[in-house]
Amino acid sequence: MPIATRSPFLSLATVLVAALLLPHAVHRDAHGDEPPATVEGHPALTDAPRYTTTKQGRQGDPVNIAFVGTEEELHRTLARARWYAADPITLKTSLRIAADVVLKKPYDHAPVSDLFLWGRQQDTAFEQPVGASPKQRHHVRFWRSRELDAGGEPLWLGAATFDERVEISRTTGGVTHRIGPDVDRERNKLVIDARTSGLLDGYYWVDRFHRDREGRNGGGDPYFTDGRLAVGVLDMRR
After folding, report:
1. Within a domain: residue 25?
2. pLDDT at 158
3. What range does the domain containing 189 cover?
């Protein structure tokens, strides 16, 4: 099944490469239900949360990507892939992003709202702007696991989504971004971009990471997924 090409923001080359990342077939039992995922790889994956939560405790964006490596490796990889670290949320940055949306001015390091995993807000976030306004952008939040693997490396669990537009939140009444429904497309794009950095040592998939293939985030935005988690392994020695 080919990846849809409805989005004008991905190049044809990116879409063609993303086609290599399509979901594998999943075997179902006699009742049509999928068996739970058997998670191997980093030990933090064993009990990894599947969804972020909002400050109010509502289910947020789905976790769909992860990297194994140091914080320096994560930042270096995404910087080489032309993703920008998001500024913290302050009065100054909040006013700037609102003004830049209205004036259609670029803001490569625009802040992202807080989501929570393991009981805390994201440790870091990155974005890649689209066009001249911060109202549309690729972005991802990451949380560092406290558990390390045999090599002493943490797992960075992430939720990658695409901001399509700015609207008034149906749940909070505040100004917020609305995400695009195809979260797999954003996951695949981030894997492809990480490969272009030259620092990705390899990657693997955790099938059936999500049982539910459709849902809504804390802002009420619908999304769909093939249920897989992509896990990249970083190495600056490459």
Report:
1. no
2. 97
3. 53-234
Sequence-distant (6+) residues with CB within 8 A of 138 are 9, 83, 127, 128, 130, 160, 162, 163, 186, 189, 190
Task: Tell me the two tokens of residue 125.
Answer: 């976030």
Residue 203 · residue 193 · CB < 8 Å: no
In angstroms, rounded to a whole number, what is the distance separating the alpha carbons of residues 111 and 167? 16
Q: Say if 184 falls within a structural domain.
A: yes
- Residue 80 located in a structural domain: yes
- Measured CA to CA, the distance from residue 98 to residue 110 in angstroms comes to 10
- For 43-96, what is each residue's pLDDT tens digit? 999 999 999 999 999 999 999 999 999 999 999 999 999 998 875 655 555 544
What residues contact residue 67 under an 8 Å CB cut-off, 6+ apart?
A: 73, 74, 77, 142, 155, 156, 158, 194, 231, 232, 233, 234
Residues in the chain: 238
SS3 category, 51:
strand
Q: What is the pTM of this model?
A: 0.75
For residue 169, the model assigns a pLDDT of 52
Count of domains for the chain: 1
> At 194, phi and psi to the nearest 5?
-65, -35
Ranges of the chain with pLDDT below 50? 1-38, 95-96, 99-100, 102-103, 105, 168, 172-175
Alpha carbons 60 and 114: distance in angstroms, whole number: 10
